[in-house]
Design a protein that fits this description.
By secondary structure, the chain is an alpha/beta fold. The protein is about 45% helix and about 15% strand. The chain has one domain: TIM Barrel (Alpha-Beta Barrel). The chain has an eight-stranded parallel barrel, surrounded by six helices. It binds phosphoenolpyruvate.
Length: about 250
């Protein structure tokens, strides 16, 4: 059975001091046990976070990863390095990586493979820009994103993927997809995976919604049958808000 997951993407926020305070506050919070909670601090705070989270059920994710094992890639971080500081998930294909850092489907495919080979679970982000939604192409866009970067995987490998549907027009904008829009897309994604793999595989994959989730709208979004949780940006930076979102299921 698929898990409910809430993952906090801290993006390029929080220095060591702020990260430490935020994690300590999360450790003291009363978090619903049935939900898998993941935080994704910046690279510089992963080792610190790993220490502070020791003995807790909160899992660590990185926000990105390089696709090579090691070598002359100045400024990059490998899967092995991430594993060595307790990371178990990696966010791949975030719309900011796609748009600002030109990460395309082919590159993301190699990153997915590298993550899985190193036993890191990809939180693979997909989603249309506003124009795609306005033109009615949103289903086609996510289908391409899924098939170009994930559908080369075996059924067994696919079981280790978490998908985050994040309509780009809802990220950091305060505008959220309605619970119905989220549900429609999640059903579509699940059906598309079922057609390629099987209903059993599709039913086991957690599909998260991301895009301006806040304590005030989380409950309605998570009430939808195919929304298995959220990838949270801004609201993950306040322990109180993140806790409220986690406890919205
Ligand atoms: C994100 O960056 O993945 C995100 C969903 O951000 P926000 O919650 O701030 O819209």
């Amino acid at each position: 059975m698929r898990k409910n997951i809430i993952a906090g993407n801290w993006k390029m926020n929080a220095d060591a001091q702020a990260a430490s305070t935020l994690i300590k506050n999360l450790n003291e919070a009363d978090l619903a046990e049935k939900t898998e909670v993941i935080i994704a601090p910046s690279y510089t705070n992963l080792a610190l976070a790993n220490e502070l989270l020791s003995g807790t059920s909160i899992r660590l994710s990185s926000q990105n990863m390089h696709q090579a094992d090691k070598g002359a890639f100045t400024g990059e971080v490998s899967a092995e390095m991430l594993k060595s500081v307790g990371v178990s998930y990696v966010i791949l294909g975030h719309s900011e990586r796609r748009a600002i850092f030109n990460e395309d489907a082919q590159l993301l495919k190699t990153k997915v493979d590298q993550a899985l080979e190193n036993e890191l679970k990809p939180i693979f982000c997909i989603g249309e820009e506003l124009k795609g939604r306005q033109d009615g192409k949103h289903f086609d866009i996510v289908e391409s994103q899924l098939s170009e970067s994930l559908f080369h995987l075996s059924a067994n490998a696919m079981r280790n993927i978490v998908i985050a549907y994040e309509p780009v027009w809802a990220i950091g904008t305060g505008e959220t997809a309605s619970p119905e829009q989220a549900q429609d897309m999640h059903v579509h994604i699940r059906q598309f995976i079922a057609d390629k793999y099987s209903v059993e595989i599709a039913d086991g994959i957690s599909i998260l919604y991301g895009g301006s989730v806040k304590p005030g709208n989380a409950k309605d979004i998570f009430a939808k049958a195919d929304v298995d949780g959220g990838l949270i940006g801004g609201a993950a930076l306040k322990a109180e808000d993140f806790t409220a979102i986690i406890n919205s299921f």
